[in-house]
Amino acid sequence: MKLTVYLSGEIHTDWRQQIIKGSNDLDLNLNFTSAVTNHEASDAAGDVLGDEENSFWRDHKSSKVNSIRTQTMIKNCDIAVIRFGDKYKQWNAAFDAGYCAALGKPYITLHDDTIIHPLKEVDGAAMAWATSPQQIVEILKYVSSQ
Length: 146
Prior knowledge:
By secondary structure, the protein is of the alpha/beta class. The chain has helices at 15-25, 39-43, 55-76, 91-103, 120-125, 133-144, and strands spanning 3-9, 30-34, 79-83, 107-110, 128-130. The mean pLDDT is 95.
């Protein structure tokens, strides 16, 4: 059985690549999907719909276009990994976690212990909380084993 794992959240570090490499090194039968990780491309996703003078409407259109991808990938995944970094507040990651919870999709949060308190509800609905990509790989190894 091939599981699809959606990787959501923080885009400024290589945590996605670490999980994919660790899973590939173990020859795990997984398919990985992700949100767009190029910040500028994500911000410009709605630009095809026309120029906006007001940044609110540019962001609004781009968030709608981005949500087509995000909603589709979350609906089609078997497991989501949602990373919260320490440098930026990832409101989109919190939204993805809530969407997973609403759909009954199992998700794992990935963050350090300095942000336990602000993520208590998000972690409370998660199936696991990990502090490293290596822990994620070990969880994926377990859940994907025959």
